[in-house]
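User: C-alpha cells in, sequence out, please.
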C-alpha cells in the first residue's frame, strides 16, 4: 500500500523568509514522523515483541547478577545500575534495524517519490531518524515499568523524565541514521540483517551498559570510550540515578551524541540517492 505521506511531502515547501523556512522544515519533519507513526499504529504487535528482550535482561540477567554480587556498582544495586543500560540497549536494537524499512521503501518505489520532492535530503533523513524515536520511547516505558515492578526505585523528577525522553530520542536518531547509512550501501534485506546483527553485539558488549568500564580489560576500554552507546548509557545514568553514578557530566554525553548524530545525518543525506538505485 502506498503511503499517503509521500504525496504530502511533495507538496510541502519552505517559506521564503527565514522563519518560514524553519516552519516549512518543521512541517516536513512532522509529516515524515506522522507517516511512520501511522505505520506503527497499523502493527502494534511489534512493540509487544520488542518488549520481550528487555524483560529477559532485567528479570533474568539482572536478578541473577544482583543476587551473586560479582559486578562492582558502588552504592547502587545491580538492577539500578543495569536499568539505564538495558534502556539504551533497547533503543540500539530497535534503531539499528530501522534501515530495513528504507530497503523495503526502495523496493516499493517510495524512495523515488521522496527524492523527487522539494524536501531537502537532510530533512528527509532527519525526519526518518526522529521517527525511530517513537519505537524507542515505547521501549522506555516498558523498561521503566519493568524496573518498577522489580523494586527498582529510580529518583526521577519531571525534569529528569523530560531529559530521558530527549536522550532516548537523540540516541534513537543516532543509531537509526547509522542504520540508514548501511541501508544506502547494501542491496538486499538479507545483507542488511547480517551487518546489523554483526554490529549490535560489539556495540552492546563494548559499552558500559551491563558492567563498568573500570573492570574491562585494558585493550577493550578505548573501544568502549569510542562507542556512542557508552555515552547514551552514561547520559541515562546521569538522569535516572543519584548524582555521581555516571562517568561524565550530562553535557559531555549529550554533546558527543549530538555531534555523532549530526555527522551521520550529513553522511546519510549524501548517500540517500543510492537507496533509489
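Assistant: Sequence out:
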Amino acid at each position: 500500500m502506498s503511503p499517503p505521506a509521500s504525496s504530502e511531502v511533495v507538496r510541502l515547501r519552505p517559506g521564503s523568509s527565514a522563519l518560514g523556512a524553519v516552519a516549512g522544515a518543521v512541517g516536513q519533519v512532522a509529516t515524515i514522523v506522522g507517516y511512520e507513526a501511522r505505520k506503527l499504529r497499523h502493527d502494534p504487535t511489534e512493540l509487544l515483541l520488542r518488549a520481550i528482550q528487555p524483560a529477559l535482561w532485567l528479570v533474568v540477567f539482572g536478578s541473577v547478577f544482583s543476587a551473586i554480587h560479582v559486578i562492582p556498582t558502588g552504592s547502587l544495586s545491580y538492577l539500578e545500575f543495569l536499568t539505564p543500560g538495558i534502556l539504551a540497549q533497547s533503543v540500539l536494537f530497535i534503531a539499528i534495524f530501522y534501515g530495513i524499512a528504507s530497503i523495503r521503501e526502495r523496493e516499493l518505489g517510495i524512495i523515488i517519490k521522496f527524492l523527487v520532492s522539494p524536501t531537502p535530503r537532510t530533512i528527509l533523513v532527519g525526519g526518518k531518524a526522529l521517527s525511530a524515536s517513537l519505537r524507542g520511547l515505547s521501549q522506555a516505558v516498558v523498561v521503566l515499568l519493568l524496573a518498577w515492578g522489580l523494586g527498582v526505585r529510580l529518583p526521577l523528577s519531571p525534569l529528569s523524565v523530560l531529559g530521558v525522553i530527549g536522550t532516548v530520542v537523540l540516541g534513537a536518531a543516532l543509531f537509526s541514521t547509522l542504520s540508514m547509512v548501511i541501508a544506502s550501501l547494501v542491496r538486499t534485506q538479507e545483507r542488511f540483517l547480517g551487518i546489523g546483527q554483526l554490529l549490535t553485539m560489539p556495540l552492546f558488549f563494548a559499552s558500559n551498559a551491563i558492567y563498568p568500564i573500570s573492570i574491562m580489560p585494558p585493550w577493550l576500554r578505548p573501544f568502549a570510550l569510542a562507542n556512542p552507546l557508552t555515552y547514551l548509557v552514561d547520559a541515562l545514568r546521569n538522569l535516572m540515578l543519584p548524582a555521581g553514578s555516571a562517568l561524565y557530566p550530562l553535557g559531555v554525553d549529550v554533546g558527543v551524541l549530538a555531534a555523532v548524530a549530526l555527522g551521520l545525518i550529513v553522511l546519510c543525506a549524501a548517500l540517500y540517492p543510492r537507496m533509489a538505485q
